[in-house]
Amino acid sequence: MKRFLLILLLLATPSMAVQPDEVLDDPILEQRARDLSSGLRCLVCRNESIDESNAGLARDLRLLLRERLVAGDTDGQAIDFIVDRYGEYVLLRPTTSGSNILLWLAGPIMLLIAVATGFSFLRKRSAEQDRREGDGLLSDAEKERLREILKD
């Protein structure tokens, strides 16, 4: 029974998809590769990093990243190479520059527009209500009679 529970616990732990034949001999380069691949999106699995994905394309991206690091690229150069080849969608954390700034700012801008529209609507409604009450449509006697009717 204990063995069964131990096997279940071992199977329940998260495992990385990096295959043993992908691991670099240099532990420093391997750690750099792991750090970088955790920020790259698998294009097949969507919101999963290439480090966690078992897809064939994720494996190809892991190998490509390791090739670039072994060739002497810096972290930035390796990421830029992959982004140039596959597009900015490959980044799990997109940049906040260029055309992406519009996407980053769209949410707060829409919130401000919604708040301004709601505030404007409430002000107009309040002004309309004040205008209706203050127009003198009813005389004092009529207002008194209306209050008596509403009490009943």
TrEMBL record:
Spans traversing the lipid bilayer: 101-122
Gene Ontology cellular component terms for the protein in this record: plasma membrane
Family matches, as Pfam families: CcmH (PF03918)
Keyword annotations: Heme, Iron, Membrane, Metal-binding, Signal, Transmembrane, Transmembrane helix
Alphabetized Gene3D superfamilies for the sequence: Cytochrome C biogenesis protein (1.10.8.640)
Annotated ranges, domain CcmH/CycL/Ccl2/NrfF N-terminal: 6-150
Entry's Gene Ontology molecular function annotations: metal ion binding
Signal peptide, first to last residue: 1-17
Function: Possible subunit of a heme lyase.
Family to which this protein belongs: Belongs to the CcmH/CycL/Ccl2/NrfF family.
Listed name of the protein: Cytochrome c-type biogenesis protein
Biological source species: Ruegeria faecimaris
